[in-house]
Amino acid sequence: MTDFPQHDERRAPRVAFATLGCKVNQYDTQAMIEVFRRHGYELVDFPETADVYVINTCTVTGRADQKSRQLLRRARRQNPAAVTVVVGCLPQANPQAAASLAEADVVIGHRERKALMEAVDEARRRRQAGNVPGPLVRVAPWEPGVVFDETPITAMAGRTRATIKIQEGCNLHCTYCIIPYARGPARSRDPAAVVAEVQRLVAAGYREFVFTGICMGGYGRDLTPPVSLARLVREVAAVPGVARIRLSSVEPTDIDEELLQVVAEPPAAAHLHIPLQSGSNRILVRMGRRYTREKYAAVVARARAVIPDLAVTTDVMVGFPGETEEDFSETSDFVERMGFARIHVFPYSRRPGTPAAEMPGQLSEDVKEARVRVLVALGARLGQRFQEQFLGRVMAVLVEEQRDGQGRLEGLTGNYLRAAFEGDDRFKGELVPVRLLRPEQGVIAGELVAGG
What we know:
pyruvate-formate lyase- activating enzyme; 33% helix
């Protein structure tokens, strides 16, 4: 007979989370953590024994789906008596596949997340009674007119940087992307709610705020009256104690002069993440992207002209259906000309239900992985070239709570360079001047400027 770990009624129940995917998912996990804590749960790390395991899923790629299944099986092995929860994008986009997961006790989509605790309580009662007929499935379809679901947070992992979700959903429907099906239509958060959350987090000691969303550049267009992303940045910048505001990702078609002027001024970070996806105009059309490489280049050139020391980072997809060697060469050449500070490279993943999944010219995994390796190597060279521009310069670094492996203070410049330097704990959470001296593995070694 197997000796299953049992819940001790004398202690608080324990919950563990595993989060896959983007910063929006990280924010959603924090919101769920706070719900569990309000219901008396103790948070533990995922490898520990817990009474409830929550896997906040991503479904952007098939590999992400596979990781969700692996985490679910791992949770079941760690405590066969625990309640296992699969939540987020995978259930919402493909509820049938999620409901078929044998190890899951609760399957819950984005729309039903407010029913999470009710479903967990019911699943725990079932397990305690020895009655586990199958997962409790709570997935409601997206409907027109859905509004932003307010799930405020009061903390975030660490004590320096906090992610703030300002927008949800997407109306673009690029041919490869499952996210509009998982996250629903675009909708924006009330600016007053964003400001109030930032004020709470400033009071808790946070200094940098990373705005995130699924299609964040379109923020505020659905509000009455409409509000621009630039205006929201200005309102948050006026909150006392905000040291830095960073934008996570903005489509090139959403970058206008108003936004550039706001990002050019502190406390906005001199950093824009502008997704490219491909440097081939033919492939951009097949992807359903709404720009050409020429228009993209013009946006980047204007941004660099307006914002001093700007870091431009990007996403590039390789192996899209029909991508020829010539298309890939155009992408590589364009990426090099753009001189990105950092590149996130990923292979195309066939997502059932999207137009691209049915396109002819699907490429082999070997071809895709070979192209990934080429662009990753190019990205490393471009990143080093970007770093070298700032060696010898004094730049403001927001010092993080955790020291690096050598015991040095560590933090980011506004333009996303990671610096490590000697200093005492009183600088944690502060913006300090650091002279950048030499690149090391993953960081730039620097020195605190006298008087900093």
